[in-house]
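Ticket #4471: complex job returned nothing on first submit. Input attached below:
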Amino acid sequence: MITVKQTKEKIKKIENGTIVTPLGFSADGVHAGLRYAKKDLGVIVSDVPANCAAVYTLNAFQAAPLAVTKESVAVEQKLQAIVVNSACANACTGEQGLKDAYQMRNTCAEKLNILPHHVAVASTGVIGELLDMEKIVKGIGLLSPSSNKEKAEEFQTAILTTDTVMKSACYETKIDGKVVTIGGTAKGSGMIHPNMATMLSFITTDAKVEASVLQDALGSITNKSFNQITVDGDTSTNDMVVVLANGKAGHQSLTPDHPEWNSFYEALRLTCEDLAKQIARDGEGATKLIEVNVSGAHTNEEANVIAKQIVGSNLVKTAMYGADANWGRIICSVGYSGVALNPETVNVSLGNIQMLENSQPVSFSEEEAKAYLENDTVEVYVDLQQGNGIGKAWGCDLTYDYVKINASYRT
Amino acid sequence: MITVKQTKEKIKKIENGTIVTPLGFSADGVHAGLRYAKKDLGVIVSDVPANCAAVYTLNAFQAAPLAVTKESVAVEQKLQAIVVNSACANACTGEQGLKDAYQMRNTCAEKLNILPHHVAVASTGVIGELLDMEKIVKGIGLLSPSSNKEKAEEFQTAILTTDTVMKSACYETKIDGKVVTIGGTAKGSGMIHPNMATMLSFITTDAKVEASVLQDALGSITNKSFNQITVDGDTSTNDMVVVLANGKAGHQSLTPDHPEWNSFYEALRLTCEDLAKQIARDGEGATKLIEVNVSGAHTNEEANVIAKQIVGSNLVKTAMYGADANWGRIICSVGYSGVALNPETVNVSLGNIQMLENSQPVSFSEEEAKAYLENDTVEVYVDLQQGNGIGKAWGCDLTYDYVKINASYRT
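Support reply: We reran it on our side without changes. The output follows.
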């Protein structure tokens, strides 16, 4: 793993970058009519078949588009396009749902004049309803992908459901002296939890990297980024992260043995973490991003478990909404995380305001704490003082608007 | 296990029964001044030392009163009194907290002229603040326990925090021709989840039963009742269930070999289930009780896991609040419960309205479903059709008021 210093030197955040910033990618998003007015169908295209990697929801009920995408990827671990609709998840739709996902894939392949198994399919929205295939087919006909930033934003908009903002991240590094760019987008704001909750993310890069190597990197990075966010603890039927690496940057093929492998890995990790945090901040009804940092655990895995337990607690989330420095709820979450720990040595701080030292309250200014908790980003620090394990997780506060949005989602 | 028919014949619910209905118990509740006006300190007393059983929170941070109660019980598995305060949990209070819990125990023993190790101590309320011992000691001095029903209700009131109603249940059966009564009370409405969430329950009986036998029964029953309710998934530092069996009913000592053991077990189970459902219904901000019934699992344990996963889902809970027949969220919860299952054979009904058959949507009347979901009790049925395992769990809807209560609990 490269150090932070090296990261700063070698990796640059591209503020206005998108999925079409890496060489050889184009995109589009259109209004197919699945929703009343919002764009609801989009595509990302690579000029050439790209090596790919993907991770999927662990929900036992996987939606039809996941089956079709897995089948596409299995043929030669290459993809050239990803076609995505919002409004309808095509989940719990049986035989007909599967036929529809195949039709969506094949229609897109025909439209772009590429092989069907080079197309991935993704859907997000209400579960248990069939896709309106007439609209999907017509919508695919309207797609006109290009590498304009505006087109990327139309894609980014088309994949949203209850999200309030588009999500986008772009990082650049150098490999063999060549500029390598990674661009990503994501959707997701509810049903967000470990292991690919209702969340889609699509990442493009012009790096050259074998599919199996890319898959290992994506798996490891997902566990530190997308799988460490939670909005409501619900893991959906449809989620996936797909990375396309089309090799257009022109460097030697990357493996973990390459001296600059870590620069690529870290740029990909930063892209995923950036998107994950954007999703958490845009959690349904959220007013703030909560970042929990756990240190002093026996292992990184245990630190991650505790961090996610804290950030997923409804009581912590409501306290954050109320700007209430209720550290009791934080320590309580630590205690029921299932991780064996010494209950006598825990330190807790909100921002730089310490509240608990060796599991005992220390006096602090309630006013100062309240002021800190009114920021739009709140950092929680928990140090178990029992080992060297560290972990992070991200989430958001639980608000009236979360209830409002979810008590009336279908209507 | 006795059948339902036998249960009906042999076990009677006593509608107005309380913890003082079994022979030889008295109680009281007073205003010690920990809260502005509400009663906040109470005691249950047995005329004679009673055999006891107890289960405690699994939270790694166990509050001081639990340590003291465990020490009392360990001496001879007998208790004669339980002294309880609300408003302050005496958790994360270190050495001083432990001293305070001992002082609370000893003051109560002195007041009642019984042995200190025959006294259990329980606290519930805010974490991280010290008990005001002057008020506790003064309050214990005010206690004047008797076996009037009014006194039992004063106890029931004194232990409440954010609860909106007192909880009470009472069942009667016959052993060796003698009437045996079980009475119970509980508090808890938030931070309610598996394994003794912020929940206290105290159960009295005049049955004669060895402590070790009672402990086994309580452990088994707790897993089917108190541990199958969830309000917000948070497990607290303070929770316990204590059963006192003083033997005053005058029958032969009960063991599982006694021909009428099942009558006692079932009466105790009904008492616990009744209280658990009252807690779930009174969940913070709740407008309705949700009961989830899972059948067709490989084992009862797996059925229980799935039932609790469903009833704990924020998305299911908000849909119930909105009277939205969103079975997609139910099936989604089944899918991420971690239980291995065949995703093709699941049936889902709300009440008697079927929505999913073999994992496929069936048409139903949305209006009828909405009307059903506006009841104050909603039953969810999930049949996996994969085995004979059955399970149940109880919870409540997630509402604006839940957020309101918890965004401002300390203030």
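The radius of gyration of chain B is 21 Å. Closing as resolved unless it happens again.
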